[in-house]
Amino acid sequence: MNDFAGLVAVVTGGASGIGLATAKLLTGRGATVVALDLKPDGLPDGIPGLAVDVTDDAQVKAAVDEVVERFGRLDVVVNNAGISAVGDVTVNSDEEWLRVLDVNVVGMVRVARHAVPHLRRSPSAAIVNTCSIVAWAGVEQRVLYSASKGAVHALTLAMAADHVREGIRVNCVAPGTADTPWVDRLIDRMPDPDAARAALNEFQPMGRVVTADEVANAIAYLASPLSGSTVGTVLSVDSGMHGLRLRPP
Ligand code: NAD
Question: Which ranges carry the Ketoreductase domain (predicted)?
Fold first, then answer.
């Protein structure tokens, strides 16, 4: 498929995991993709990167302006950069709360703020935000991360309403546990990483976590005209975690 031919996309957090898989997929389908990342290292040939911290409004604006100056347009924004925090409400400090919300929520706002004026000129404008299953499922020891992703869901709906009449579709994907360096880092800290990985897979209704490529495919669908009348929705890519309750085997 070459359905993104001629289109220009930015992917935040595009140098790792879901963002990298998305940047590769959209590039393979004809888009010019720029990965915006804190550390835009190790990107494959054909995917330019820009060093951007989404908590820095001036950096975000400069990056969006540079993309439009270099490539002449902007059609697709994948708001994907995110960080996590572990703990219940007694654990995380105000500084940690504000840092995670700054990256996960306000970071998306900053990118959209500077991208929307350009997207208004695109005939196939789309924004896809990376949410998470934790926005709806109470997950232990993830109070801060869950609150941030609940905000991403509400942000997606509100942005979709604001921009639908301008021809900009805003949607989000909600991965369950995805096989990315983020999850590898968590598992590698456990006493027995192999056993932890096996248990994590067994816990999923499909018997395995989802792949970064599967999430990227959902993002590409929401970013492409194939989903032309889909707006303000959530597409779950979660091995069945959010909706299924299986009997014990
Ligand atoms: P990852 O850690 O592999 O990649 C995240 C990327 O974001 C990294 O390249 C990192 O440098 C970049 N980044 C972090 N802070 C940034 C900042 N301030 N500015 C710019 N870039 C920044 O993680 P991933 O698993 O691919 O996660 C991507 C998104 O998917 C996140 O929003 C995460 O919340 C969401 N998600 C992941 C999972 C999962 O299980 N992996 C599940 C649900 C949702």
Answer: 7-167
